[in-house]
Design a protein that fits this description.
alpha/beta, UDP-N-acetylmuramoyl-L-alanine:D-glutamate ligase, nine-stranded mixed sheet, about 10% strand
Length: about 500
């Protein structure tokens, strides 16, 4: 499932801010996450109190999101202080965030300033340049373009000026002040008008939040900018047309007007033509080079006797248990490589990165194996006393060597083939034998590697790998590729060991 992060304030009445963003993202088919910039006490009649997050606490929220579930898009709403804006900009750059949508909430439609001049300057200098698209209303665009907007021609002039000033796409919202909700998108191709239908509904609280969140959701799913904006405007029209009427003031829209409708759809090209045919679709750059260089070994592993028999359901139970024992022994050393990486991490973000992987493997793969072995009477002590087979010992020695002596990049090369290779061989297995998922013994193991969470981690590490290796020269990249291939060979030898090879 694609994911999106909203960075905004909380609306206690649920019509705008974080609450509107999460509803919108959910309705538009992505998993929503949040980092809260402020708590507000408000309802449909107005805001009575605001309590801002500290920059340190906001940074902590962002670190926790980006190092665990990396968002496919980021929406940024109202941020009222310079320090918070600076924190957001720094974190977006630190994690190389993508598909950034900024709703530059500076000026209310009434013309009242909502943030200080200092914060507006920081927004202009630090944040807007990072955006893929910004979504100002007319008063906000007047501030950004330093001009008065009184016509559609003025909208085009302002959008063009903002695009040139900040280097990002601009969706200038016309609203009912100038036209019947006709919005202008300015990209490198120039202007595109989106003509909206005037909907007679006074309950428009949170429309700006909702529009920007819907755009972010569609970008996260892979739609292009124009399509994302068009779908977002259609969603807004549907939510307004539902005519929800709550509260004593300007109430919220019905975000949930179409629970099973088209807005949760993804582009047709994203749907795989057949099960698990997209294993490497998200791999690019050096990650894809690594995979292509070792894929022959993974294919050989995917077709080994052990995995073939597992898929067919004919694998001998004792052989399966023996594999579980050796793999549990192996995992204890595999988890240590993350501990080595944590100890060598140059910063807190990298410590969290590797600690997250250690915890994920322990909670998932390791627990599955221990549960299976416990069902046949094996304890932790029994596993510790079991001699390692040669292939298992060789693989563990390889991991220890690079964990103890390697650089961060070398450690990553040593540990990645286990992660990516297991995804590949088990997706191939299930593509041939989908019924294997229901096998009482083998099913739980297979399920660890063909679920959305595991796929997300694999895809996320494509990005991590490319980032960590982007500045290396060709000789260093070739050296890293050799380590990756050697680890892939150990994976193959392990599968052959499980099948009974000496």
């Amino acid at each position: 499932m694609r994911t999106a992060l909203t960075i905004a304030g909380s609306d206690s009445s649920g019509g705008a801010g974080i609450q509107a963003d999460i509803k919108t993202m959910t309705m538009n088919g992505v998993f929503a996450m949040s980092a809260i910039t402020a708590l507000t006490a408000q309802n449909t009649t107005g805001v009575t109190a605001i309590q801002e997050s500290s920059p340190d606490f906001l940074a902590e929220q962002l670190d926790e999101v980006f190092t665990d579930i990396f968002p496919d898009a980021v929406k940024i709403g109202m941020v009222s202080s310079s320090d918070l804006i600076t924190t957001i900009a720094e974190k977006l750059q630190q994690y190389d965030a993508k598909n950034i949508v900024v709703d530059p909430v500076m000026v209310a439609t009434s013309g009242a300033r909502l943030i200080s001049e200092e914060a507006i300057d920081t927004l202009k200098e630090d944040l807007l340049q990072l955006a893929d698209v910004i979504t100002p209303n007319i008063p906000e665009a007047e501030v950004l373009a330093d001009m008065t907007i009184e016509s559609e021609a003025d909208m085009e002039a302002a959008a063009r000026a903002i695009y040139k000033l900040y280097g990002c796409n601009v969706l200038l919202k016309g609203g009912h002040n100038l036209n019947d909700a006709n919005d202008l998108l300015w990209t490198e191709e120039g202007p595109t008008w989106f003509h909206g239908e005037r909907i007679d509904n006074p309950n428009t609280h949170g429309t700006g939040c909702t529009l920007s969140s819907a755009i972010a959701s569609n970008l996260a799913k892979g739609y292009d900018m124009k399509t994302s904006v068009g779908r977002a405007k259609d969603y807004i029209s549907g939510a307004l047309s539902a005519q929800l009427d709550l509260g004593h003031g300007k109430g919220p829209m019905a975000h949930n007007f179409d629970l099973t409708g088209k807005f949760a759809e993804s582009p047709a090209e994203e749907a795989p033509a057949e099960p698990f045919s997209t294993t490497f679709d998200n791999a690019t750059g050096f990650s894809l080079e690594l995979i292509n260089d070792s894929k022959d070994l993974w294919n050989e592993a995917a077709n080994c006797d052990f995995l073939t028999e597992m898929g067919e359901g004919t694998l001998d139970h004792d052989k399966f248990v023996e594999y579980m024992i050796q793999d549990s022994i192996y995992l204890r050393d595999y988890l240590k490589i993350f501990a080595y990486a944590i100890a060598k991490a140059p910063n807190w973000a990298d410590m969290q990165l590797f600690n997250g992987m250690l915890a994920y493997c322990d909670d998932g793969e390791n627990k599955t194996r221990l549960d299976i072995l416990a069902s046949v009477g094996m304890t932790d002590a029994d596993i510790d006393r079991t001699p390692m087979k040669r292939q298992c010992r060789d693989y563990c020695d390889f991991l220890k060597k690079w964990g103890q002596d390697g650089t961060q990049a070398e450690i990553i090369m040593a540990m990645l083939p286990c992660m990516w290779g297991y995804r590949y061989v088990f997706e191939q297995l299930v593509a041939k034998h989908p019924e294997a998922m229901d096998h009482p013994d083998f099913g739980p193991v297979i399920a660890d590697y063909v679920n959305a969470g595991y796929a997300w981690y694999c895809d996320y590490w494509y990005t991590v790998t490319n980032e960590k290796c982007k500045d290396f020269d060709r000789a260093t990249l070739d050296h890293l590729k050799e380590i990756f291939r050697e680890a892939s060979a150990h994976e193959l030898y392990f599968w052959e060991m499980a099948g009974g090879a000496d």
